[in-house]
Fold:
Amino acid sequence: MLWLAIWRSMVGGSGLRIVPAGSAHRHRYPFRKVIVAAIPFLATASCVYFNALYNANRLYDQGVEEIEQGRDASGRAVLGISIEKAEGIVERSPDSRWADDALRLILRARIYREEWPEAAEAARKLLGYAETQQDSIEVAGYLGAAEQNLGEAQRADSLLSVALAAEEDTYRQAELLWYRGRARADLGLAQAADEDFRQVSALLPSWIPPRIGRVRLLVESGNDEDAALELSMLLTLSYDDREERRVVDLVAEVAEAAPEAAVTALAGVDSSALLPNNRADLIKLRGDLHLALGEGRRGRADYRLAAAIAPASRAAAEARLALVRMDLRTISTLEEFDSLGLALTDIAALSGGRRSFLVRDWSDLFIRVEYFLSSGGLGYLRAAEAARDELGAPRLARTLFLSYAETSPEALWAPKAILAALDLTALDSDLREESGAGPSAEELRQRLLDDYRDSPYVQAFFGEDTGRFSYEELEQGLRRQLERLDRLADQEVRNRRSAVQQ
Structure:
């Protein structure tokens, strides 16, 4: 793992003096016999501290390994034990030859646990053991990383710049540039931050976090073209499971902020090395973006591809649902609606469909509409409203509004239904002519004038005085009845759910 490699590269000799400045006199003894007598004790103490540091380092490696394998809680716990052992060395013998190495281990573990105030404190203590300029520069890098994460961007930039000027190790350079780039981004120095991130990727091409950071920086800066290029490059790399999930989440972020950049970046995701479920997720997302950008044909192709790549995944179920939703926009008959209902039932039965809240919600919506239709009368009016407002099926809604008006022509709300159908006819006149679905807009207006001239709904439509109280009274009476239908439909949903669970 890259992080493990970086931090382990720091485990070797510290480059710091073992004894803090000004304390050497405490190790001088006036009598030879005292020195001779102390030798066995010093050797024993040295062995004890060496063993303690060895155990602390072993626990540190174990904790890092746990975190790198995705077991954060256990890894952090093991690192905590490592810190305790190393702190024991520093507390019991701050002048021992192992104290500075123990402090360095504490500092590394604190950084890994993202305990930034404690990391800064450890760095300042470690600075007390430095007697050369090189020693101080090394600690400046650690302290700069902590300051950056504590929100002290200006101070971090200065410390990290000092450390970088003298650093020759590739891994350490990359790490320092990563922290400095973040500090400069916090300072609003987008161009300088971008340069640091690009240098990191040049030094360590497979290191994922800096590439993620650069994509976010470019999107925030409005540089969508470069963001798309960087993201597309990122999608060609290999990751562990956790990194892959972070990249998938990043694509979703970019899609929200810069959809066209996300579409460009996802052009080659079909052949990427991502796990099938994650690839299906991103291809389904690309389909959503194509649809939002008015490219329905490409969106439909992406949904089909996502469903084929990982058929049992949630992304596949939601891609198939997206196809159903696309078809809802063009259907105009109950037979077509029933056919889509059967398709949705099949989707809901898939393992991915059972895990999808979206599929469940749409299944419930179909059950409600089916209940409204089975109720007849005002149920058709309520089903028409649901088709228009919730299903996104304007042609079907128009059919249902007209069906209600035709089967209940004497009802107080028949003109309301015709007006709703008229509104959808105006919006969808070309589609109506293509499908031959019922009367034209002019025919509907004439019907209102001929049959419902005295209706408050019609009077309001033609801009006449409606007798406002009468109009509101009609609406209140309708809402009470439709709310009752809603409650009964909700109960039908619960009944169906209960039957499935049994």
